Amino acid sequence: MPLVLMIPTILVPTVSILFIVVMMIIVTKGGNQQIYLFENGLQTYGTLIKKVKIDLHDATIYRVTFEYEVNGQKYKMWEDISSMARLEDDEKEPILYNPKNPKKAILLDGLPAHITVDDTGNLKHKYSFMGYVYLSIPIALIMGMIYLSVK
Fold it and tell me: How far apart are the C-alpha atoms of 124 and 135, rounded to whole Å?
């Protein structure tokens, strides 16, 4: 095989694998902050103080602002969510905050619908097998790229 044809054959899987690795690092970094809150966060309750409807081309999202209190000090946090149904059912909504930095918080009812909090305060995934499904997608892509590059 001429050298000119071998370069794209080697380059495409290499660039694709590098892209997947970089994306996994970016996603993992943001996820680590949420995991820290899930493992170490303390729960408080917040009040909805502002709701802004944002119309996108094919969807509507809401930017909601909540106010909560930790050790007598008030904090505000905001999130973009796609549905208000779970956030307008109670007067106050549960919030997890970082005890070392209470400005960092996450709205529990803003989590995807398949993630819930049980009676003991633990997070439960409605479909626990989905982690394996999500993991299999990049593995299948990498195996497919390797197969196509050696073929």
Answer: 19
Question: What's the rounded Cα separation, in Å, for the pair 92 and 75?
Answer: 14
What the block records as the tokens of 127 is 């479909």
Q: What is the pLDDT of residue 100?
A: 93
DSSP helix/strand/coil, 28: helix
Task: Give the C-alpha separation, 108 to 115, whole Å.
Answer: 9
pLDDT digits 0-9 by tens, 47-106: 999 999 999 888 888 999 999 999 999 999 998 888 787 777 778 988 989 999 999 998
Domain span at 101: 13-150
Q: Which distant-in-sequence residues (6+ apart) come within 8 Å of 123 by Cβ?
A: 38, 111, 115, 116, 117
Q: How far is CA 34 from CA 37, 47, 52, 61, 108, in A?
A: 5, 21, 24, 21, 11
Does 94 fall in a domain? yes
Instruction: Report the C-alpha gap between 111 and 83 in whole angstroms.
Output: 11
Domain tally, the chain:
1
Task: Evaluate whether residue 63 is within a structural domain.
Answer: yes
